[in-house]
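Technical note accompanying the year-one report. For the benefit of new consortium partners, we illustrate the data format agreed upon in the data management plan: each record pairs a sequence with a structure-token string. No post-processing was applied to the example shown here.
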Amino acid sequence: MLLFWAGIIYALIGPDFQEVGSMPLILGIVVLVMHGLQMLMLKQVSKFLHPTAKDYLAVLVFGSFAMNHHRARLKAISEENKQKNAENRQKKQKP
């Protein structure tokens, strides 16, 4: 991803901007929007994961590569809650 962003920046400020055309700009905007949506997804589960500003920045730059860690954490929390709920149901059923 860093190579992609470096290529986008070079295409925008490099000496051959006219030859490159608008394709890098369009691709950069598409990727930026997708990463922004992933940041919103992370914000949705922030009460469970407590992400830092560094986490948001990593998702903005690296996208789904950075989200893998957060997905794994969320899955572990979800499994933990399922086990607790099952245990609570069993306790309530027993007199």
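Partners are asked to follow this layout when depositing records. The mean pLDDT is 86.
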